[in-house]
User: Which sequence fits this backbone?
C-alpha cells in the first residue's frame, strides 16, 4: 500500500492548483467561523490533497459550493482524515466525492 506522501505526489498538477484554492477558502472560513487567526495553509493543502488522492473529489464543484456544503466537506475531511493512510474514518463521505 502506498504511503500518503506517495499518494499526494501522484495528484496531477491541475488538481493541485484547485486544491490550493480550496485550502485557502477553507483556512479563511475556519478562521472566520472560529474567531481566530488563519491557520497554516500547508496543513489544509496536505489534508485535502491526501483525501482527494484516496477519495477523488469533484474539485471545481467543491470550490464553488455554498457555505454549508463546503463547510461540511472540508470540515469533515479535517475531522475524519487518517493522516497516515489518507483514508476517511467513521464512514465520512464528502458530498463532493466522485
Assistant:
Amino acid at each position: 500500500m502506498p504511503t500518503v506522501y506517495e499518494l499526494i505526489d501522484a495528484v496531477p498538477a491541475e488538481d493541485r492548483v484547485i486544491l490550493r484554492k480550496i485550502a485557502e477558502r477553507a483556512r479563511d472560513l475556519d478562521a472566520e467561523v472560529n474567531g481566530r487567526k488563519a491557520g497554516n495553509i500547508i496543513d489544509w493543502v496536505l489534508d485535502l490533497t491526501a483525501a482527494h488522492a484516496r477519495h477523488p473529489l469533484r474539485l471545481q464543484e467543491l470550490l464553488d459550493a455554498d457555505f454549508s456544503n463546503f463547510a461540511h466537506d472540508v470540515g469533515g475531511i479535517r475531522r475524519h482524515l487518517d493522516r497516515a493512510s489518507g483514508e476517511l474514518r467513521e464512514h465520512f463521505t464528502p458530498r463532493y466525492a466522485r
